[in-house]
Amino acid sequence: MMSGYLLVSGLCLATVNLMLLFQVWWLLPFLLWFLSLLYFKFSKPFLSTVIVVSGIVYFLGWQVKINQLIRLPVGNVKTQAIIHPDDVQFKNNKVVGTGHLLSGENIRIFFDNQNDMIHFKSSTVKPILIQGTGVFERINVARNEFSFDPRSYWQSRGIVHRIKFKKLKILGYAKPNDFITLIKWTVHNYHYRLTNWFEGLPTGLRDYGETLLLGYTRPDFYAENGGIQLLGLMHLFSISGFQVAGIYQIWLSIARRCGVQREHSLIIVQMLLVALWLFAGGVQSLVRPILLGISQAWRELRWLTIDAKDAWGLSLIGGLLIEPGVLHNLGGQLSYLLTFGLLWLSNRPGWYQSIWLSFFILPTLLWHTFSWHPISLVANLCIVPLFTWLVIPTILIGVIASFMQVALIRDICETLINGMQYCIKCGEKIPGDLLFGRPPLMLCVIITLLTLGWLIYNKYLLSILICFSYLIVWWIPQGLPGGFVTFFDVGQGDATILRPKNNDVTIVDVGGQLQMLPNKQATVNDVTTNYQVEELAHFLKGHAINSVHRLILTHKDFDHIGNLSTFLEIIRVNNIYIPAGMEKQTAFKKMLRPHLKKGLSIKPVVVGKKISNNMLICHPITEGKGENDDSISLYIDYGHLNLMLTGDLSKSGEQKIIERFKLPKIDILKFDHHGSKTSTDDKFVNQLQPTIGIVSAGVNNRYHHPNIETLRTAKKYHVKVYNTAEKGMIKIEWGILRKYRIKSFYS
Question: Which of 265, 470, 648, 672 has its CA 20 to 30 Å from the CA of residue 398?
Answer without folding.
Answer: 265
